[in-house]
Design goal:
Blueprint: E1 7-10, H1 14-25, E2 32-35, H2 67-72, E3 75-78, E4 83-87, E5 92-95, E6 100-102, E7 105-108, E8 112-114, E9 127-128, H3 133-145, E10 148-152, H4 156-167, E11 171-176, H5 188-201, E12 204-207, E13 211-217, E14 220-226, E15 231-233, E16 236-239, E17 243-245, H6 248-252, E18 261-262, E19 274-276, E20 281-285, E21 290-292, H7 297-311, E22 323-328, E23 331-337, E24 344-348, E25 356-362, E26 365-372, H8 375-387, H9 393-397, H10 403-410
Bound molecules: flavin-adenine dinucleotide.
Residues 10-16, 35-38, 45-46, 48-49, 82-83, 109-112, 130-131, 157, 246, 249, 278-279, 295-298, 300, 324-326 line the site of flavin-adenine dinucleotide.
Length: 411
């Protein structure tokens, strides 16, 4: 029956494209329709704030799959097509064009949006966010033609952009309301190290600094006024204050969306024929022991792979260990596990050498490792954590202790 075999995917980011590919690998023979509101061939997002921003890679190098892939795998890729609503009773996805596409299974892989920043002046021209290729192109131009930038928010994306800006010689000021950088995701030691590193790249880093307004003239941003009255002039402003789930489509269709589309371990929503994966999915995380949304390529692609198995008759709960990376200047940060669960942190190696790791333990159990320019520690940690290896904080901090041997023994 054709109807049972039609899978429609909304969103062609890392999650949607991986799902389409994995469905074919898992033997799905039926129709796959991949709906993308972006007119470009689906592309990778991480390089937008890294190689692409530095002009080390152009747009062509970022595409996830070549144009021939979709044809060869019989994936009906609809570019520049926005999904407007879901008719759950009739099992149809309605596009902005009015076209209605029948589905037997619908997957929402709609990602996120830059969190809106509600201060006076946020609407001025020259206030940028960085979420898609268009945003990155606009910022790349500004980097070449401007004298100074204020980056609001010291999360991963803001800091990656700030590193490129400062190292290119642009006067760069980073303004963060929290007392430390990347505070929601990393240990205090990593925050301290990175605040220092960004100062070394040439940026001014202001912590515990709230923004009162974005200043402007003639409709154009001219800088930022802080809560304490300080004025920071700038030619443009980058706002990187987080990501919100793009769950409007699901919400309007009556799906449960407290903060993203709520799914179970099989990525199923409260409608058994509708699923959600990637940045938009509020899922029960096996490692985090709670419901969460994760914003990473690993999470998007691993959820897609698990769902492809489930949709081809091999129910596979999502249980992958989270990992993430961020490139800032000459520093490669790699993280595995969930550091916000840790109650004890130890440092392995000397931060002054710009190559070290921080190990996080909870009640004596290793729950996360952050590595700076230490890819070997990261790879070992990806074995140690799932194996539940018996590592003590004292051993982790001792650079003479052989982690590799422990990982090997732990299998
Ligand atoms: P997305 O990639 O956001 O894709 C969702 C797609 O759905 C979008 O193309 C969107 O336009 C489309 N869409 C939404 N609604 C509709 C609709 N109604 N109709 C049609 N289409 C729709 N992660 C890392 O792990 N490491 C990094 O170093 C890293 N760096 C990053 C740097 C930047 C600048 C950004 C923006 C993100 C970065 N990330 C990084 C995060 C990572 O890119 C995301 O976690 C990942 O893209 C999530 O994939 P996704 O498919 O869930 O969502």
């Amino acid at each position: 029956m054709l109807e049972d075999r039609t899978i429609v995917i909304v969103g062609a980011g890392h999650a949607g494209v991986q799902l389409a590919a994995s469905l074919r690998e898992e033997g799905h023979e039926g129709r796959i329709t991949l709906v993308s509101d972006d007119p470009r061939l689906p592309y990778q997002r991480p390089p937008l704030s890294k190689a692409f921003m530095k002009r080390e890679a152009e747009a062509d190098a970022l595409i996830l799959r070549g144009p021939g892939f979709y044809e060869q795998k019989r994936i009906d890729l609809r570019l520049g097509a926005t999904a407007r609503s879901i008719d759950r009773a009739a099992k149809r996805l309605i596009l902005a064009s009015g076209e209605s596409i029948p589905y037997s299974r619908l997957v929402l892989a709609t990602g996120g949006l830059a969190r809106p920043f509600k201060v006076p002046g946020a609407e001025f021209a020259g206030v940028h966010v960085l979420r898609d290729m268009g945003d990155a192109e606009a910022l790349r131009d500004r980097l070449e033609n401007s004298r100074g930038v204020v980056v609001i928010g010291a999360g991963f994306i803001g800091l990656e952009f700030a590193a490129v800006a400062a190292r290119s010689g642009l006067k760069t000021t980073i303004v963060e309301v929290a007392p430390r950088v990347m505070g929601r995701a990393v240990s205090p030691a990593i925050s301290d190290f990175y605040a220092g590193a960004h100062r070394g790249f040439g940026a001014e880093v202001l912590l515990g600094a709230g923004v009162a307004a974005i200043d402007g003239a003639d409709g154009k941003a001219r800088g930022v006024t802080l809560g304490d009255g300080r004025v920071l002039p700038a030619a443009f402003v980058v706002v990187g204050v987080g990501v919100v789930a793009r769950d409007g489509l699901a919400r309007e269709a009556g799906l449960d969306c407290p903060n993203g589309v709520r799914v179970d371990a099989l990525m199923t929503t409260n409608d058994p024929d509708i699923f959600a994966i990637g940045d938009v999915a509020l899922h029960p995380n096996a490692w985090g022991e709670r419901e969460m949304r994760l914003e990473s390529v690993q999470n998007a692609t691993d959820q897609a792979r698990a769902l492809a198995r489930t949709l081809t008759g091999k129910p596979t709960p999502y249980a992958a260990l989270p990992w993430f990376w961020s490139d800032q200047g000459d520093l490669k940060l790699q993280m595995v596990g969930l550091m916000d669960m840790a109650d004890t942190f130890v440092t392995r190696g000397d931060p002054a050498s710009r190559a070290f790791s921080v190990f996080g333990f909870r009640a004596g159990r290793l729950v996360g490792v952050e590595s700076v320019n230490k890819p070997a520690d990261h790879m070992i940690a990806r074995k140690l954590i799932p194996a539940g290896a018996a590592l003590t904080p004292v051993q982790a901090a001792d650079t003479g202790f052989d982690l590799k041997a422990l990982a090997k023994a732990a299998g």
